[in-house]
Design goal:
Layout lengths: L2 E6 L9 H9 L8 E5 L6 H4 L5 E8 L8 E5 L19 H11 L5 E8 L11 H20 L3
Parallel strand pairs: 1-2, 1-3, 3-5
Antiparallel strand pairs: 4-5
Helix pairs in contact: 1-4
Length: 152
């Protein structure tokens, strides 16, 4: 089984960098053969990031009105992502839209997990907020655990 983990974000936009932070926390700690990708461009590039992967785990910031640092783990392969995640991105096209585009094109990996971490501040030049930094560590640990235990 081919697995990739993709951290999505913009390093210059505060909490929007959380997917990149999770990828950096995972660097060097994942089982052999797991592809780790940092996606700083538009999330539509996810389609090439997870090409030839059976399983994709994607991490991105969300802005849906929940408490900052809230983590949502969603099985995108089971059906569309919740409506509140549509357009909940600082990108032109969000992860939810990229997932649905991949589904429509038949390019969604058979198992696609999306971790959304609710952000607090997306200002240019802002650091990760404390709640989001803590959530990044939590998600990185969850992904490590999930990949070492296998799908369940």
């Amino acid at each position: 089984m081919t697995v990739c983990v993709v951290g999505v974000g913009n390093a210059l936009r505060g909490d929007d960098a959380v997917g990149l932070e999770v990828a950096r926390l995972l660097d060097g700690t994942l089982p052999a053969g797991v592809r780790l990708v940092e996606c700083e461009g538009e999330p539509v590039s996810l389609l090439s990031s997870w090409e030839n992967c059976d399983t994709a785990i994607v991490v991105d910031a969300t802005e849906s009105g929940r408490e900052p640092g809230t983590v949502r783990r969603l099985a995108a392969h089971d059906g569309p992502l919740p409506p509140e995640l549509q357009r909940a991105s600082t990108h032109l096209l969000g992860v939810a839209e990229a997932v649905e585009l991949a589904r429509a094109l038949g390019r969604l990996p058979g198992r696609t997990i999306v971790y959304g971490i609710e952000g607090a501040a997306f200002d240019t030049g802002a650091p990760l907020s404390e709640a989001v930094q803590a959530a990044a560590a939590e998600v990185a640990a969850s992904i490590r655990r999930e990949l070492s235990e296998g799908p369940g």
